[in-house]
Design a protein that fits this description.
- This protein is an alpha+beta fold and 279 residues long.
- The chain has one domain.
- 30% of the residues lie in helices and 14% in strands.
- The strands form three sheets. A four-stranded antiparallel sheet has the order 1-2-7-4, with helices on both faces. A three-stranded antiparallel sheet has the order 3-9-8, with no helix packed on it.
- α1 runs antiparallel to α4.
Amino acid sequence: MQKYKIQKRITSKAEELGADLAGFASVEALKKSPSHYLLSAMGDSIDGEPADFSSRSFSRVEWPSTVRTVLIIALSHPETKPELDWFHSKGNTIGNRMLMDINKNLSAWIEETEGIKTYPLSYYVEKGGVYLKDAAILAGMGCLGRNNSLITPEFGPLVRLRAMFLEAEIEPTGPINFDPCNNCQEYCRKACPQEAFDSKVTLPDDIQLASLPARDAFYRRAKCMHQMSLDWSNSEYLAGDETLGGMDKEGLRDTGNVVVKHCRQCELACPAGSIVTKR
């Protein structure tokens, strides 16, 4: 009962600080999740392409031995607020900055109020982070969609995630029985400008996964990465853009700010994302 009370207090505080969703998963369960298993079995390169532009070859993430639970928070990124997803040359996206602030404040509150040691995590796995979609699914926040995105009951795929470790056993909040993709006509996959979902990734025979990557292995990360490169080449120069209001302390509102508007076609085409959000 005490574990559930702590769980409720923390999720309520996360929402008070601005998160739209929050959940808990076991670190031991996360180590066995599909993405983390593939990382240990194959390193960071699947389909011949690393996880991100700054990624270096690695095959193992070192997490503190004392952590027991991963706490995941989510922030909705509705289609009506595209600026939350714009990547700024002055550093990051507005949405991710918001998540970082929530995570920082939540971490301080947990340590002070609950007496639990926390470890706010980097977004990047190679810097000690976690695969956020795997963690969110284990925490009961949704399922992996055909567009290789987390699909939540509340916001569809229109969410962004952040996480922290806790040195305490908190009852997991998932997974849940939720899957809106079973009878879907794959609008997301048809919307991809690079046809990233048109062919299946073949894994080596010695890789045994109960849950294939990208739901059914139909996802070519290299093609998605190519679109990201195109997005960078089509970046825009915004001078004094008012959508950056309130972000001056991060150096975002500036006369020399280059903005990259990354592709979201597979996400925005998802019928589950048409749900009216509370933001």
